[in-house]
Amino acid sequence: MQVIPPEIKKILDKWNIRGLVIMSLLFQTFLIFLAPLRKRISKKWVAAVLWTAYLLADWTANYAVSQITKNQGKEPEPGDPPKNKKLLALWAPFLLLHLGGPDTITALALEDNALWKRHLLSLVSQALAGVYAVVQSMENVLWPPITLLFITGTIKYVERTRALYSASLDKFKDRMLKPADTGPNYAKLMEEYDSRKKSNLPTEIFLTEEPGKHERPPTLVKPDREYLTNLEIVQYGYKFFETFKGLVVDLIFSFRERDESRDFFKKLKPGEALRIIETELGFLYESMYTKTAILHSKTGTLFRLIAFGTLLASFFLFHRRPLKYDEFHGADVVITYVLFFVGFALDFASLVIFLLSDWTFAVLRPLKDDPEEEKSSIDSLFNWFLEFRKPQWKEHICNGNQSHEVLTTGFFSRRWSGTIYGFNFIGFCLKAKVSRIHQKRSCNLFVWDSIVLVFDRVIRSIQMLVGSIKDVNRSIRSVLRQRSKKNKMFRYTVYAVYLVLFAGIPEVFAVLWGYIDRIFSVKSYLDEIRFISREPLTKNQWEFIFYELKDKSEFAEKPEDAKKVSWARGEWALRDTKLVEVDRLMLYIENVDYDQSLLLWHIATELCFQKEEGEEIKNLSSESYDDREFSKIISDYMMYLLIMQPKLMSEVAGIGTIRFRDTKAEAERFFKSRYIKDSRDMKGASETVLSVDNKIEPMLVKGDRSKSVLFDASMLAKELQKLKESRNGDGKWRVLRKVWVELLCYAASHCKATEHVAQLTRGGELLNFVWLLMAHFGLADQFQINKGDARAKLVVGK
């Protein structure tokens, strides 16, 4: 008995190679256009689709080559054209070209770069397999175009292997290391010193110190004008990328590099700093995950021209040969032409991406020594092109009738997602969708919100139905259990059947669902759709962060001072406020772990926020409203990082998950016990938490077994409520704003550099920008060389 009918099996045997070749071409086309989207968008469906296409592209090409090799050794089927196998041999180098991958993606994740040896071995094996397929079809009348195609395919695959090799962290670090510095020739110096001493010549050794910061001429000068041009943004971004890419591999920087960067960034406007960091992160992304870095070298450009030339020559040789359709199958000829034409189209697309990349502008027009030098016509042309990638800001009216400029850069122009995600603890406990502060008015967003709303209602309905079934099941089971105690026959018949059908089977499904959820994290994906909020970056948010770090950089002259400033978790901000209540607030920072501090201040911020929600916010001043909005967004963002992005917070997370679960359990029990009617009433729920008397500390009542911080946060919120607006604006919202900036900076500086780089493939995060901005202001651990080189000099007195 045949599982597959003979007719279908015959079709599959006839079209399997053709189908695989077409699939391989489709995957290449798909990847070259979709891969750049992953640095602009953080949707998980994009990552899932790319992951599938990336893996299937290699598998399809490899399997197709093996099928071609296998097919060459078979006897021709009756009715097949006599030389058709020779045409199929032409497809082998095409598949080698496909294995070289598109220029827009070489590595799916940072770990793929470490597998460059595997790709090198695959290159050799696939090249040998292709040669074997051609040898089997000897003497092949198509050997000239096949040979040229092999050159093209080999160059493309070598480019991919070389890109992976260059981006592997150990090789990336090796290329950045400077030549070994042995210092002065000690042996020779001592010989000369001893010789002159024996000659009774007055000789001394002096150490010539390197000039100090204020004695050296500045090596990087900002143009003396109000704004940097678009081309200058890219040039400075490339300059700092070449310097600070060592952060990825934990290299140590000198005091010169620190002073150069810090002095330059102090003169920048916040918007200019944002654009330069955007460009830097773009260069970092392209050097780690694409072929861009190697293609912009002289060798890479030369070999790419050779690859395109051989592809073009191969096509002309194939096309000029008179094709006899009785020798080749018509469909195979058509597929071959499609392979050529699509190959040309993809190469043209790669050329356009190559020419319009930031690397091209930075390499062709390097940074000038004199920033005031007159701009050429080429500079003007490049500035015009780069104008389309400039961040776009749009004025937005918030709930408090305050006007803010939000980041609204077009999808194809943006360099990162520009989104700040948020996770609200109280909203999650109440299963309430947190509304956006900056609500975008777009059709796509309206459709998405409508889908999420329907999805949320369906889940709620299912949960209510399951709860009702459990209640009914519990009542029936109780009745049947009482009846079974009186009647043994009933116990072993009706009650036994009931336990199997209505208790045992649901339990089996519950266990299966538990396994599925643990493997695929279904519940976390559903929670992310329902409870993750999204806010665009606003100009005043970035300005808050920029000026806070700029002020702190004034206290970071020495590496040890920079470490103290960058490792502050709120205590620096509280001491800077000069409020009398600081000592009580300091207890919630100095005496607690970082993850505990995050949860404490997040819940306290939300309680204060909900306390003033509604009509109360109209009484706030413009500055207080901005501080309130900033604190709310960053508070939710930090909780999002702690709960939803554990890799980014792995160095500081501690027992955050346990503490979160304990606090959530206590909050849900508390809300249930207070009979809160509207479970989505976050304001009412917050007021209920604040209404609890906190005369005795929760620790003294509950002990240390439970890690819940719900009512500790309530105590903190009440302390914050006591803060009055001072003359310099230091009210509770100004204090919260400063504390949240420090908590954000602490997380950014303690996140692994490789995790920052990995996040670039998922749309980027505000955390990545803060990390790089701190480095530019000298607030990083890598600046450990405090003094310049002292050189010994032998001086002979007269």
Task: Describe it.
Keywords: Membrane, Transmembrane, Transmembrane helix. It comes from Capsella rubella. Pfam families: DUF4220, DUF594. This is DUF4220 domain-containing protein. InterPro entries: DUF4220, DUF594. The protein is mainly α and 798 residues long. Among the domains are: 231 residues, no CATH class; 87 residues; 217 residues, no CATH class. The chain is built from 33 helices and 6 strands. It has a two-stranded antiparallel sheet. The protein has a two-stranded antiparallel sheet with strand order 2-3. A two-stranded antiparallel ribbon has the order 4-5. β2 and β3 form a beta hairpin. The longest helix has 44 residues. The radius of gyration is 33 Å and the shape is globular. It starts with 5 loop residues before the first helix and ends with a strand.
Describe the structure using short key phrases.
single chain; 798 residues; mainly alpha; two-stranded antiparallel sheet; two-stranded antiparallel ribbon
Helix amount, in percent? Answer: 55-70%
Strand content: under 5%
Largest sheet: 2 strands, antiparallel
- Tally of DSSP helical segments: 33
Total number of strands: 6
Instruction: Indicate the overall shape.
Output: globular
Distance between the termini: 109 Å
**Largest beta sheet: what is the strand line-up?**
1-6
Q: Name the average pLDDT.
A: 82
- Classification by helices and strands: mainly alpha
Which segments are poorly predicted (pLDDT under 50) over 5 or more consecutive residues?
none
The gyration radius over C-alpha positions equals: 33 Å
